[in-house]
């Protein structure tokens, strides 16, 4: 049986928490995000947003049913809230992003921005009745009748709270990309070209001043779609 906690010294580097003030920290429950790309809800409320003094207070907050993740009421302290997820606490909403240091940040957003989220297409597969299942980065799957409608690397705009597809950003030349890994993590840039490798090597994407692997590229509509740091 796996533990629900881990030592702070071994927690993911993406978590913006101190490592030596306490010994233990809660682990996120298994879900759509990897441990590196999400944090448990109780820890976010207590240590990141400073909305609770301890996990007991965080649990009371969840019991009021005023805390939502992606537009749905959440009562589980261990629920992982990860990249691009929308966390709503009462009247305030926050979106999870990665900053330029690779740390997970939960930045305040407007009610309009909280009405949708971006999901990267990780792959697709054919299932019963010839339908195509699209696999998204947050663990969700959607069914479409046309296999050519979306490609891997594209981004879908998911409407909240109804969870329907409201838009589509294709992975193409000139698209705005948000980088979620590598030495340029947390910045945006315009795609110049996409190099598909016919081997075991990862596909690469070229930008005006640098290149990176395709797995680090998250297509967005525009810089204003995310609560990024203001450039000086």
UniProtKB/TrEMBL annotation:
Keywords: Ribonucleoprotein, Ribosomal protein, RNA-binding, rRNA-binding
Domain Small ribosomal subunit protein eS4 N-terminal: 3-34
Keyword NADP (UniProt): no
Chain's gene name: rps4E
CDD domains: S4
Tree of life domain: Archaea
Stored Pfam families: Ribosomal_S4e (PF00900), RS4NT (PF08071)
Domain Small ribosomal subunit protein eS4 central region residues, every copy: 92-164
Biological source species: uncultured marine group II euryarchaeote DeepAnt-JyKC7
Name of the molecule in the record: Small ribosomal subunit protein eS4
GO MF annotations in UniProt: rRNA binding; structural constituent of ribosome
Family: Belongs to the eukaryotic ribosomal protein eS4 family.
GO cellular component: cytosolic small ribosomal subunit
């Amino acid at each position: 049986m796996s533990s629900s906690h881990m030592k702070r010294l071994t927690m993911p580097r993406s978590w913006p928490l101190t490592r030596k003030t306490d010994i233990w920290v809660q682990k996120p429950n298994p879900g759509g995000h990897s441990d590196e790309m999400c944090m448990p809800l109780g820890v976010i409320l207590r240590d990141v947003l400073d909305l609770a003094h301890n996990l007991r207070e965080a649990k009371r907050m969840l019991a009021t049913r005023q805390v939502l993740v992606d537009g749905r009421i959440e009562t589980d302290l261990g629920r992982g809230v990860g990249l691009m997820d929308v966390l709503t606490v009462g009247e305030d909403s926050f979106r999870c992003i990665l900053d330029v240091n690779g740390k997970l940040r939960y930045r305040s957003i407007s009610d309009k921005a909280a009405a949708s989220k971006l999901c990267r297409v990780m792959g697709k597969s054919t299932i019963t009745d010839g339908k195509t299942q699209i696999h998204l980065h947050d663990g969700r799957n959607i069914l479409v009748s046309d296999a050519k409608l979306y490609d891997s690397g594209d981004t879908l705009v998911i409407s909240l709270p109804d969870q329907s597809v409201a838009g589509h950003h294709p992975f193409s030349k000139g698209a705005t990309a948000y980088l979620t890994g590598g030495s340029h993590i947390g910045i945006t840039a315009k795609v110049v070209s996409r190099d598909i490798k016919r081997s075991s090597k990862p596909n690469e994407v070229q930008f005006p001043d640098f290149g990176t692997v395709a797995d680090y590229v998250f297509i967005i509509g525009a810089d204003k779609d995310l609560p990024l740091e203001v450039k000086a």
